[in-house]
Amino acid sequence: MSLEVVEVRAKYGCQKANFIAEDGKIFTIMGPNGAGKTTLLNLIAGFIKPKSGIIKLNGRQIEHLPPYKRNIAYLPQDYSLLPHYNVLENLLFPLQCRKIAPKEQKRKTREWIDRLKLETLLDKYPHELSGGERKRVALAQALVYDPEALLLDEPSSNLDLEHQKRLRLEIKRIKTELSIPILYVTHNLTEAEEVSDTVGFMFEGVLVAVGSLDDLLLNTSNEKINAFFGCPNTLEVESARRHEQI
Amino acid sequence: MIAIWEFLARYTQVPRALFPSPQTTLVAFIEISRGDLWNAVALSLFRCFTGFFIGTSLGIAIGVTMGLNETLYNALSPLLNALYAIPSVALIPIFMVWLGLTNSTIIASVSLASFINVVMVSATGIKNVPQTVIKTAKAMGARGAQLVLNIYLPLSLSSIFTGMKLGIEHAWKTSIAAEMLIGIKGLGMSLSEAEGLLRVDILFATVVLIGTFGWFFERILTHVEKRLVKHVP
Fold first, then answer.
1. Which of residues 180-219 of A touch B (CB under 8 A)?
2. Distance (Å, rounded) from C-alpha A87 to C-alpha A134?
3. Does A74 touch chain B (CB under 8 A)?
4. Which chain B residue has the Cα nearest residue A75?
5. Closest Cα partner for A132 from A98, A93, A158?
6. What is the pLDDT of residues B141-185, one digit of tens each?
7. Among A164-168, A211-215, A226-230, which is the least confidently predicted range?
8. Global pTM?
9. Residues 6 or more apart in contact with residue A230 via CB below 8 angstroms
10. Residue A73 counted as domain residue
11. Interface residue A229 vs chain B (CB under 8 A)
């Protein structure tokens, strides 16, 4: 069971992507700005129609389906809670959209309130929450309807270091508990080191390399990856003797 | 304000008959309220609210549809903007020719005045709903009517109320103006009658009453808006 992306291509942004994100694993997508990372997530979530390629979720082909039929949770970078609903209403909304029975709605909401410790926030409106609280509520809102995959676009942006750390811990816990594939877009090497099981590197719309972070950092001869991580693939040398040609 | 009015009435050279003091105006108000004033008020309010209800309902329905449909918005907005630029009083003679000197003429004029003020503001309100929120809601499974009723409408409510406040203001003005032009019983005709009798005190009393009603309508809508629009910090 997994999320499989085969030769996916969009009109703009993403030109070629091939990878498999496995259940219970975090697949981190890294790359410079404008590399097509967000476009790739939008393609998987169903907000952009692919020009070609196949997207499979747990063996089911989904690239032709609208977002609401894909059962994928997506937290865009500019994710916004619904401003006119309080936290509890925000958590109930996706369940109501899916016409889940009220008793089940209550059970699922309670589960995520307890998991992410949201009890004290239930009556608050989004503008009354701190950045960290908003992210936790957003995470609960995205996961409350039992999605089959989770897409996170720079989830720790706009958070201070402490809240970034807490959010990463939550995500790692969710990974173990839910056993669904998680796609995690980030620029931050420390963040990638902490959460990733597999890393994909995107450059100019193409997913150019997939592997462990160590593989990408140490064993690649790809200049683009080296340039991104700030370690050019060259060694400084000095000739043993003056005027000697190397 | 009343003190300035009193001061001007007392210490300027303008004759009392042309510029009555607040006290004289109050006496005139008591005089007309013992007569047919409340009947005229009821008729004006009925025309204003009937027209406002029709115009606002149509304005919100068409405005929301325009906000959701870019093609319709581009097709209709030039016409509606042109209509917006025309004073609603200028349209009353057209309705007079079409519908005669009747209640229907006033209600139609009031409806159009309300409609024009509500429709474009509602459309803009819908178009201004943040795309991030729409995307979030779609990702969570909202679509079609769910999206319109749970996301678009609540988030554009503030704009719709702004349109409604403008709409009721114009509805009230148009209703009074149409009564004056047509000569049908109502506050507008009360003004015309007082003018004919050169009773400036009654004119003042009626104008103050009209202004008070206008202010009251705006306060009611603001109060309802505050109760309904929860997301504004």
1. none
2. 9
3. yes
4. B136
5. A158
6. 888 899 999 999 999 999 999 999 999 999 999 999 999 999 999
7. A226-230
8. 0.78
9. none
10. yes
11. no
Domain count, chain A: 1
Strand partners, A5: A19, A55
**Backbone phi, then psi, for A222, in 5-degree steps?**
-75, 115
**What is the model's pLDDT at position A64?**
92
Report the C-alpha dihedral over residues B109, B114, B117, B118, rounded to 10 degrees.
-140
Q: Which domain holds residue A111?
A: 2-229
| B128 touches A at CB < 8 Å | no
End-to-end CA distance of chain A: 54
pLDDT score at A242: 60
Q: Are β-strands A149-153 and A72-75 bridged in parallel, bridged antiparallel, or unpaired?
A: parallel
Residue A119 falls inside a structural domain? yes
Asked if B142's CB is within 8 angstroms of A93's CB, the reply is: yes
| Separation between Cα atoms, residue A152 and residue A138, nearest integer Å | 11
Tell me if A238 is assigned to some domain.
no
pLDDT(A219) > 70: no
Those of residues 150-189 in B touching chain A at CB distance below 8 A are 150-151, 154-155
Q: How far is A31 from chain B (nearest CA, A)?
A: 23
Lowest mean pLDDT among A59-68, B94-103, B117-126, B136-145: B136-145
Residue B15, SS3 per DSSP: coil
Instruction: Supply the ipTM of this predicted assembly.
Output: 0.72
Task: Order across the sheet with A60-61: list the strands.
Answer: A17-22, A2-9, A52-57, A60-61
- Sorted by where each starts, the structural domains of chain B and their CATH numbers stand as 38-228 (1.10.3720.10)
Residue B231: its chain A contacts at CB < 8 A?
83-84, 125-127
Q: What is the CATH number of the domain that holds A70?
A: 3.40.50.300
Using the Cβ of A142 and the Cβ atoms of chain B, whether some distance falls under 8 Å is answered with yes
**Quick check: B139 and A141 CB within 8 A?**
no
In a domain, A239, yes or no: no
Of A14, A20, A15, A10, nearest to A210 by C-alpha is A20
Structure tokens that stand for B120 in this block = 């474009």
Report which of A67, A66, A81, A134 is spatially closest to residue B139, judged by C-alpha positions: A67
pLDDT tens figures, B184-223: 999 999 999 988 888 899 999 999 999 999 999 999 999 9
Nearest to B136 among A80, A84, A98 (CB): A80
